Amino acid sequence: MSLGKVGLRHLNFTENNTMTTTKTNIALAELAEKGADADLLKQMIQFVAQRMMEMDAESLCAAGYGERSPERLNSRNGYRERLWETRAGSVELKIPKLRKGSYFPGFLEPRRTAEKALAAVIQEAYVQGVSTRSVDELVKAMGMSGISKSQVSRLCAEIDERVHAFLERPIEGDWPYLWIDATYLKVREAGRIVSVAGIIAVAVNTDGVREVLGMAIGPSEAEPFWTAFLRSLTRRGLRGVKLVISDAHGGLKAAAAKVLKATWQRCRVHFLRNALAHAGKGQRRVVLAMINTVFAQQTQEAAIAQWRSVADQLRTKFPRLSALMDDAETDVLAFMSFPKSHRVQIHSTNPLERLNAEIKRRTNVVGIFPNDAAITRLVGALLLEQNDEWQLQRRYLPLEGLQSLAENQTARLSAVVN
Question: N or C: at which end does the chain have fewer Cβ atoms within 10 angstroms?
Fold first, then answer.
C-alpha cells in the first residue's frame, strides 16, 4: 500500500513530534532529579524559555529541526547567545537564527527600564576601560562587541531623561513618614576607586501610599550632605514630615531637625544588633528577650518605664550595653508616640530592605561605576520601576491615624512619571 504526500508528511510530522516530545520528557526528568537544587528554578526558566523559542522557530520554518519537508518555508542558521536578567538570576539563552529574515522572542521585548540601564552602564564602563573581569564577560555574553561611544551616549541619554524626570518631579501633599537609608558603591574618580554613599528616600503620604521621593550620591554622610539632600526634597514640595526613620547615620538627626522640624526614629533592628554586640554569644538570647519586653508595651509611657527597668537590670553585668540604652532611649522609642496601627512599619528601615537588596544585586554586577551619573542611571531606573509597582499595590499604611498627622487636609494627586 503506497502513501501519498499527505500521508508521508503526516508520518514525518508524527515521528518528529514524537522525538521532540521524548527529548522534552527526558530534559524534564533530568530537572526533576535535581530535587531541591538552589539553581533549579533558574534552570526551569531557562528550559521553558528555550523550548518556547524552539517552537517559534519551528512554526516560522513550517518544519521541525532537521526535518525534511516540501512545506518548509525557512531554515535554521545556528544560535546567538543572550543573557536574560530575571528575578531568579541571570539565565543564558540561545536564540535561534534563521537564514531568511530575523527572529527575536517576544517575551524578551521590550526590555525593562532597569535592564536597559544596566546594559547602558555596563557598556559605558566597557568603552571607558574601567570594567572588571565580570563586566567583560557580561559584555561578551550580551553580544555587545564593537560598541561605539556614540551608541552608548544615545542609549544613556534616553534613560537619563526619564530617570531625571522621575527624580525631579514635584512632590505634592503631606508625607508624615520618611524613611532614609544609605548604601555604599564604588566609583572611579580622578583615576582612583573611591566609595560613595547612595542615599534613598521613601515616604508614605496621608492616603497611605508609599513612594520613592528621591536619591543622591555623596562622598560622605556628614551633616552638610544630609542637609543639602533634605533641602532638595523640600524645594520640590516635601512637607508635613513628622517622623524620619533611618539608621544612626552621622549628621542626619541634626539635619532632620533643622530642615524638616521632624522627630528622628533610630532603626530598632540596627540598634538591637549594636546592643547585642556588647553581650557574650551565650547571653544574647536572654538579653534580646529582655529588651523585647519594652516593645510589647502598649503605650509610650509604659515602654519608657520598661526600657529604664531593663537598662538597670543589665547595668551590673553589661555596663556598656546599659550606657548605650541610656543614650538611645528617646531615639529608639520615638515611634511609640505615633498611632498604634502604624508602629510595625515605622520602627525600623525594614520596609527598604527588599529594595536595597535588589539595588545591591544589580550594582554588584557592575562592580566599579565609571562615574556618579552611571550610578544615578542604574539605581534611578530601579527606583522608578519599584515606585510604579507600589502604585498598583494596596495602601502601605491604614488610613486610621494618617489624617490626624496631616498639616493640609486638601486632596492630592500621586506624582508618578509614565
Answer: N
